[in-house]
Model the fold of this input.
Amino acid sequence: MTTRIDTAGARIGMWIFLYSEIILFGGLFVLYAVYFYDYPELFAKGGKELNRIIGSLNTVVLLVSSFTVAASIAAIQRGRKGQAMTFLAFSIFCGLVFVVNKYFEWGAKIRHDIYPNSATLQDGEPGLNIFFGLYYVITGLHGLHVIIGMALLTVSLVLVMRDRITASRYVVLENSGLYWHLVDLIWIFVFPLFYLVL
Amino acid sequence: MTAAQSYLEQPSPPGRTGWKAWLLTHDHKRLGLMYLWAILFWFVLAAILGLLMRTELMSAGRTIMGPETYSSMFTLHGVIMIFLFGIPAIPAIFGNFFLPIQLGADDVFFPRLNLLSWYLFMFGGGFAVFSLFFGDGFPDTGWTFYVPFSISSSGNVSLTVTAAFILGMSSMLTGLNFVTTFHRMRDKAMGLMKIPLFTWSVYATAWVQILATPVIAITFVLVVLERLLSIGLFEPDKGGDPLLYQHLFWMYSHPAVYIIILPAMGVISEIIPTFSHKSIFGYKAIVYSSLAIAIAGSLVWAHHMYTSGMSDVSVFVFSLLTFLVAIPSAVKVFSWVSTMYKGSIEMSPPFFLTLCFIYLFTVGGLTGLVIGAAGTDIHVHDTHFVVAHFHFVMLGGTGFAFFAALHYWWPKMFGVMYRNRPAYIGAVSAAVGFIFHFVPMLILGMQGMPRRYYDYLPQYETGNFLAGFGAYLLVFGLLLMLLNLVLSLRGPRTAPANPWGGATLEWSVPSPPPVENFTDPPNIKDFPYDFSEIVGNSKK
Amino acid sequence: MESIEEHRHITGYGQLAVILALLLALTGVTVAVSYIHLGFFNVPVALAIAALKASLVLLFFMHLRHEGPVIRYAFITAILFLAVMIGFTFWDVAFR
Done:
């Protein structure tokens, strides 16, 4: 069997995987769309209880990390190994910041008795229960993907370090980068839908 | 050709020996066989479950099992037949084996991902078995897992839907592999309109696998989360809407039936030209209709929900769209029949099974119109009419096409010829048994017998009793065909490269093929169903 | 080894930085607009800005503008399916 280097094909495979991830989150956006239509005022009320500053910060963090991931690819294309590694490490750090922020956000909510099946949500308005139910499911699934993305970027970082990713062979980095950008894309929609509903 | 040269002897990657040469293989052909044995196991198991269910129904009241067992049985039968047979069978076995060869390639684009798909398939199946024996037993919700029952039911719902999730990943990754292979590994001389129709059908199916499967993935994740956390996303008391579960579920499960039927249609499009010794009629129409079915099939999911309480507007819209989906299927049936017209027909087991397909699938499709029209559906929804309809298309259709594919490509995969007589006897038994089993259900359904009911009113007993005999004849026929095929493996490997006179590339390589598929570069004809050479040779 | 390499576009740092600046600016805009009460129109405006940001990430960070027709048409197909998933559900929800 002849081995071949076909980076376009490798990228096609990754993009196809991304389409499936888009549809995966899409199912949750179907629920959001319907329930927002059903409970517009209560969704606004729930949105006010979310911390817009942390939400905006997380948005900025992910956007910057997308930039640094793209920059790491630009760096490796120019053969600048050190730069590529720095950009990658910074991206992973951004992911960590995001996850830590999320931890504090969730912690605060849980301390205020707002979590799936909590007494506050059970006894309160059903629409509010749905808002926070969706909040936990969507940001939870997204957070899981942030962690997976960080793992992929870490693998790429190690491969760059070991010269297994180079200027002539960097499709693994590209594909990891694509996954990370998807994580950013999803948040770009999650942010206004949950934090900016006013 | 010496025996040492085929893929059955030579491993890929080279150097592996023993079980590692199979369990760690990158060879799409070996993977196709590994899927074959697993899927045949699941098919036979689910068929026997079906037989047990129908035996129970042969007399009113308790016959051989109690009501809870019966509910778990139809759930298990459905889960296995859909997720472990219907969806994977033709793509994972024949798509894996023949898509690369039909394209003139030496493997799929991501061979190791292909291996992972197989492990996910085996792992998912194992998970399903695990959920049979642990905890409070197998779910009794039906394979559709409707809320609220699936959330409150004590059975192992979480384990089973997780198994389905894993199987979905296998399916999605297979689709990903096929699409990439299709676009990047075709022989340079093979333009889009020279690709064989089986490959086109598997390609169209692959897109549905990629885009629709994630919907059921998230749906089942939500079921598990609801069972664990009681969020309330589908519970009215907590603000949820149970109909949204049905929407999400059918958003996958309707396209899933097109995953089940499209590759089967691709098989038929291969077999008919070969045994008519004539080029396929309407090649482009069949290509476009495959893509049209994939697209249109993604727009009609709520035709499973006419009586659920959804709005009248959506009942109207989805009913209208459902009628549109019938059109491309009819285009295919017309093309197949036109291919046979004025052809030089040669009967063979695969061709006989193909003819059974055309008849049974057409009947199934016509009964689909009764259900697809919202007005008539009110009368037959959730009755045995529906059960008969989907068995006509999924068993009479895909099932028979699967057996046709087995009989068509068996000599190529194994290098052996099976005996024709048992094949014909089995096929006739299966076809006759099928009709005697499922036609009564059409009538019982119209008379009002509900589906998934353990017991029934006395007036339905005669129909159920008679239908039971059909079931035994059907299963006998299926098992006879399988036994005949398996026993043929004991014989010598004397099958020629092209026993049927087929025109596509797999018939230009030895039976069984060498590990690299093509020892000489493949000869791409102007048109994949060009029989002039084959017909010319046969006249000599 | 066969190599099917194609000429790859080498991204410029400057261009990437400009895109980041645009993304951050749009983030600011969407936060600011959320304080202006447009009633129902807050939603489409927020989604439109999000779609614009997403397009920038897709086209420039993910190099979608340099990819071939397979990836681009498939992307559109995925988005269309998503639109159908949401839109067609509303045939039910909006008319009950």
Summary: DSSP finds three helices and one strand in chain C. The CA atoms of residues 80 and 86 of chain C lie 10 Å apart. The beta strands of chain C are 2-3.
